[in-house]
Amino acid sequence: MIRITKAGRVTAAVLAAGAVTALAGAPAEAATATTASWTADVSTVDYDDVNVTGAGGTLTLADAAWHRTARVFAGSEGSFTTTEHALGTPANRVSAQLTADTPKGTTVEVDVRGRTGVDDWTEWTPAGTALKTSVASVQVRVSLRSDTDGVRPSVSGVSLSADSVPQVNALAATAALTYKVYATREGLVGGTTANGHVITSRDHFVALPSGRGLSGKGSGTYTVRICKTDNSRCEYAPVWDVGPWNTKDDYWNPASVRAEYKDLPQGQPEAYAAYHNGYNGGRDDLGYKVGNPAGIDLGDGVFYDGLGMSDNGNVNVTYLWTGSDKTGVVSTAGDPMNVRASASTTAAVKGLAANYAKVNIECYVEGDTVTGKFGTGNIWDRIGPDNYVSDTYLQTGSDLPVAPHC
């Protein structure tokens, strides 16, 4: 994996058409801290990289005709994520300079995220763009795409620099954002998601139309709570795919942060505006005619088992990483765990929490004694309205409650 030395904020770098050495997101204003620089190693590919190879020290697409199942088009795509690198001095921006060969119809993009807590990260942010806060360590993601079978972009060098700039898009800590959006069922068993996960029967994950909230394989860094509109059933599931329609529509963010379609109301997916109002000629960012207003895709297990849905429809979605509550990661033998109406193993089941899901812990209560992955205890965590799970199945980094008593 690539190692990074100093980072905290990044601007998205996009290279297209030609052999180039380009600066991604070069700062227009003077930095307020000494710039630190380092070089990423793009030669070592591992488990959380998708359809890339680093043979000969050059990063390129492993299969020039592969793409995630949810995206039907010619060409290929892949991504490479560096190992986390600690910064000597906290910073809020990382810029990237690439040495790359990008034939016509291909692009290379660079995104960055910064660690904000033990298991907490900022969203993936285009290199050269300020992160929401200063951070002490970062990861970098290099995404390669082609729209023609057999044609590959390649990257032979990634130079990075970190600095700090005035915070203009800082988002105040608050409750996690929730919006009502139209949900569709993804299905596609046997296919591969954007993070490299092979979809299984009754799988428990979701897709959002932006890579900013894409979790790595086997990770729930970015998790959503999806509830029926009457809140009778909910599921907590990790974001493992990009879709259903767009690829850069982080519609949950305000216009100051949203990557595209800044003129749309916060919380309104571009697909909704395209389908109902003819926005963007009724097409998504890939030029496809939008056939429904979906802002989220649900794995079969979420759709059928977690929510008990029988058809596509509106749901309430909470983007949990946008909140500031204490968190815990669901750790089970693989199957999702029941979410109960109270701190009792006999209480009504209100939904499911998928393995790897990173849930927000509002507070805790004492209840039935349970033996789980992390021992035996009577502490139950409230992870949503009338939604409780045993603390013995949550990895919180502490043997003691991490949130206040309810």
Report on the structure:
Helices cover 4% and strands 40% of the residues. The longest helix is centred in the C-terminal third of the chain and has 8 residues, at 270-277. The protein has two helices and 24 strands. The strands form four sheets. Strands 1, 2, 3, 4, 5, 6, 7, 8, 9 and 10 form a ten-stranded antiparallel beta sheet that branches. A six-stranded mixed barrel has the order 11-15-12-14-13-16. Strands 20-17-24 form a three-stranded antiparallel beta sheet, with no helix packed on it. By secondary structure, it is mainly β. It has helices spanning 270-277, 300-306; strands at 13-24, 36-40, 52-53, 59-61, 76-81, 85-91, 93-114, 125-126, 135-146, 154-163, 177-185, 206-208, 223-228, 234-242, 294-298, 313-319, 326-330, 337-340, 349-353, 358-361, 363-372, 375-384, 387-390, 394-395. Residues 1-12 and 19-34 have low confidence and may be disordered. The chain has three domains: 13-163, Sandwich (Jelly Rolls); 177-322, Barwin-like endoglucanases; 326-395, SH3 Domains (SH3 type barrels).
Short précis:
The chain has 406 residues and is mainly beta.
Comma- or semicolon-separated keywords:
406 residues, Barwin-like endoglucanases, mainly beta, 6-stranded mixed β-barrel, 2 helices, disordered N terminus, SH3 type barrels, globular
